[in-house]
User: Fold this.
Amino acid sequence: MNLNSNIPSGPLASKWERHKFDMKLVNPANKRKFEVLVVGSGLAGASAAATLAELGYKVKCFCYQDSPRRAHSIAAQGGINAAKNYQNDGDSVHRLFYDTIKGGDFRAREANVHRLAEVSRQIIDQCVAQGVPFAREYSGYLSNRSFGGAQVSRTFYARGQTGQQLLLGAYQALSRQIGLGNVQMFSRTEMQDLVLVDGHAKGVVVRNLVSGEISSHSGDAVILATGGYCPVFYLSTNAVGCNVTATYRAYKRGAAFANPCYTQIHPTCIPVSGEHQSKLTLMSESLRNDGRVWVPKKQGDARKSCDIPETERDYFLERKYPSFGNLAPRDIASRAAKEVCDEGRGVGPGGLGVFLDFEDSINRLGENSVQERYGNLFNMYERITGENAYKQPMRIFPAPHYTMGGLWVDYNLMSSIPGLFVLGEANFSDHGANRLGASALMQGLADGYFVIPYTIGHYFASHDQFKPSTSHAAFKAAEEEANTKISQLLSIKGSRSIRSMHWELGRLVWEKCGMARDKEGLANAIQRIPELREEFWQNVSVPGSANELNVALEQASRVSDFMEFGELLCRDAHNRDESCGGHFRTEYQTADGEALRNDKDFSYVAGWEYQGDNKPPILHKEPLKYEEVKMTQRSYK
Amino acid sequence: MNLTLKIWRQKNADDAGEFVTYQANDVSPDMSFLEMLDVVNEGLTSKGDAPIAFDSDCREGICGTCSLVINGTPHGGQKATTACQLHMRHFQDGESITIEPWRARPFPVIRDLIVNRQAFDKVIQSGGYVSASTGGTPDANAIPVSKENADTAMDAAACIGCGACVAACKNASAMLFVSAKVSHLGTLPQGQPEKDQRVLSMVKSMDEAGFGNCTVTGACEAVCPKEISLDFISRLNRDYAAAVVKSAWKGK
Amino acid sequence: MNIFKAIFHSSLGKKYIMGLTGLALFGFVIGHMVGNLQIFLGQDKLNAYGAFLKSMPKLLWVARIGLLACVGLHIWAAVKLVRENRAARPDRYAQVKRMGTSFASRTMIWSGLIVFAFIVYHLFDFTIAPDYTGHDDKGRHDIFKMVVLGFSNPFSAIFYLIANCLLCIHLSHGVKSLFQSLGLSTGQFRSLFNGIASATAWIIFIGNTSIPLAVLLGFGKEVLK
Assistant:
């Protein structure tokens, strides 16, 4: 396997413009002869499906939800970045590019990130034209805010529901194409396998989640836009249905999986309240603007927060990072919270939480001002915890939130399998080792609206095209495998629930490969996950049959992939002997406890190639070359 | 706490369905309603019984997937809260809880508590969009929108399409859902060129799906987890009347 | 887009019919009440009012036919809407807890049908019925005596009271809804129209029931001697 990034030559700032001209085009009359299969209907999938259909391609789109409008992009709160410089505060394409590269701790491709910054401006134009109700000033012009510690105000937002509004924009564009008959939509349909014919991705095998029927769809190219894999940790801010199945099964068919160990842990989530918990809820990072983070100085201090005097409180972020204080970046704030909890100073059930205290702000600004700024968040906190954060401090704890890793793609967003394109969170391309706030929405829409429509045409025009029939032997074999896997799951009839197996895997991966990792723990996880997998296949209980709506079977199928993927995640973390971004290896830190990169040995993309069940994958390296920016050490002291 | 659950079970769309009673024991007040059902299901699956099928995804009140009628009220009756964000601390120890699916002809039950809401997708497909193909759009600030209109559009656009309005309405009317989308796009300058055609098509599609009529009871507004206002239904009535008259006038 | 189809076949169109015919009938109910309240001005004034109406038979018949058409359309649309609404929910809930809805809004079809039955009775009682109270000394139809005689029967009077109670429940929601259905009920106008609906319902209730109540308490008894 050769991971050739296919980055166009020429100066960075003109690469994309030139590449657009260099790419071959498909004659408009011929476009309807090409059929594209899009798996996933979130920001990336819906925008790609809609745009390709507008261009004249035939499109089939699949999602496991009951409607494409429910994809988890909908849950993004904060906003979307774009280098519009509407605020005249010094923003530019180059600055957005630089911030993203630096934020990613110098582990992203320069050319991809620059393109992302360039098209960010078009995204806002497109979304406004669709009727996305972004916040406005009294002038009628668009409003911006600064987000995630950025020094310029480049974030566009629609109250706290930016993801929802952008997704609805893409969903409406997709709906229009469905109504026109240009897109065939398959909801409650989950991808089971990718089908390759002569080395090219030519179709998918899917399961109808209502009837249980397994069927095949063939096409001229396949696009995966199936999101991230946070639920490998069991508890995360992702939807309970989010899964790695599509990307992992493509990996098993030969697509390289890149940088799986780059996962983002968000510091301000509501802590776990018990073992019953199914998901964690994120609260906007903006709370840290006015809240002070602290824990008791004494271990196991069980007093109520109000009974702990000022002198016995440790405002650890302010103590460790005097200049950034409570606003330290996500990965740093998360790790600091973990450290104090590991020392036995955490608060709340199980000692897994730290206080986020608004008392000072309420005294300084008055309760009304605090309510104006954060009222909805305080309400949400009360709904979930039953606690009033005006009277007692909130409790927060970090939770997995986003995965920067994903299937490897080249500059054209094509994976290592020709004809298989991967968009949005499902690919690895733009965020490096850490994603900046308000950049996920930008990347999903950039890929779907403005990159894939160009690059997929180039693929069609530069290869001899053939669309196999679904009666081709490769389809039949893949259907057979999917059916076999389902029958196997149903025939185990063991005694453990799927949830308990998933929970155990999640706890293991979280402990060994969560906010902080070390070689020994990872080695231990790599040894234990196959044992857990073995137990899963021996002892899990999956009731019901294959030919019905079977929620247990759906979950079991997804968890079976996490059981394998968890190992890959740990292997990648085990291999990367450095700390960078969301990947913090305790052995590699500076004297004052900060992430220590090793640019000499690890300035590469790790692309993993599947070798067969229970065989270690092979590592391929795509070297990262920095021509435009100089690699520096991040400092937030 | 311990609870008695009376839950609608229905094997598939053709099955008659019936209520089955379950015991939920040792329920923690910190659980969400759906987590309580997860625990009941865990007990069922580990015995090899089919779990209670219910829809949910984001579990933070934004995707609109969860759809339970709890004790006679869609989403359980807590103000501005979806079933996934409803917590067990609002129930009493020993309480008996009835759980049913959304009931409406356009939302047929697929299994247990899961219904098919594609009728909503069809309504959007018939015209709930601005026909702005990708590319070729003007600079975002070339289309100023008054803050007031942007805020009204956002109020309407907050709809999560869960269908609680239909489930709560004694007539199973979808007016609140349709009016939210018509008002969202109809309030913005970007939505003006297609305003009349949009409202005519969407109402036609809504009627064809078999939803009932609005008799202004206000149940939809009361259960809406995003507190979408009845004002939007009034706007829909106004926009439709204007569109009918205008198109008749033009002879279209 | 056919305008007739848009009005008679669409859900919203039928609501416009309900609203517009309801508005006309609401206007009639107010006019009717104002006319009838002249009973308190005495026998002469009321009989003169009756004679005045009779003096323009063409206009009277136009109004009558118009009202009949409104009643017909109002009932036709109501029955159609109710049937569609029932069809939209073939399976009932086992348990229903009403949130945010009024009694009036949930019982429109019943209050409407009973009021309709009352109107039929009322027409037979006072309008179509044979002239059983004769003429006054100026040779005019003695409406005053007819009303007093009619309401002297406590059963008749109580039926009137109940029917008016239902009419006003019907109107309290109907008037509010007609502004909504005609698309006028937005922003601050919503509370204005809702206020108008409740206020007029109360006024009509008090106005209409004051007549049988007064007669029951002995008003106008002297004409029966």
